[in-house]
Structure formats: C-alpha cells, structure tokens
Amino acid sequence: MAQVLVRQLNDKVVDRLKKRAKEHGRSLQSEVKTILEEAVPDYEGAWKRIEGMRKRLGKSGRKFSDSADLIREGRDR
C-alpha cells in the first residue's frame, strides 16, 4: 500500500484534524485517510455496480420510464 507525506502543513490545520479525529474516535492517521478516501470516490467501481443493476433489472422484463421524461411532464402541468 502506498504512503503519502505532506510537508509544511499548518499547525492550526493539524490541530483541527486532531480534534476531528478525536470527535470521530479515530487516530489522526485514520482520520486523514478517511478524508482522502471520501474526497476521491471510486467512480469506476460505482459505474460498474450501476451497470450490473441495470442488467439485472433489464432481465426482469419490466420497463422503466426515463426520469427526465417524467420531470418534463411534471413541469408541463
């Protein structure tokens, strides 16, 4: 697993990170790791899961309307 070193980080930022980590019951390292993971979501994995759901729903034989069409209909009322 890779490591990242951040140099010259402002002391006030570190203090806020420590406070946030304590509030979440995590170590500073764990808190920073969580922040970074949430900042860069796995879009590729998400799209793969979405496509899998679409395929499973398509096999059910049900027809699903386009939500954009439904929104337009609602606006036109």
Give structural attributes.
single chain, 77 residues, mainly alpha, 4 helices, elongated
Walk me through what this model shows:
- By secondary structure, this protein is mostly helical.
- It has one domain (9-77).
- The chain contains four helices and no strands.
- The chain has helices at 11-24, 28-39, 43-59, 67-76.
Care to give the gist of this entry?
This protein is an all-alpha fold and 77 residues long. Helices cover 69% and strands 0% of the residues.
Topology diagram in text:
Blueprint: H1 11-24, H2 28-39, H3 43-59, H4 67-76
Helix pairs in contact: 1-2
Radius of gyration: 22 Å
Rounded average pLDDT: 91
Element order, helices and strands? HHHH
Low-confidence stretches: none
Q: Sum up the overall morphology in one term.
A: elongated
Give the fraction of residues assigned to helices. 55-70%
End-to-end separation: 55 Å
How many structural domains does the protein architecture include? 1
Number of helices, counting only DSSP H or I runs of 4 residues or more: 4
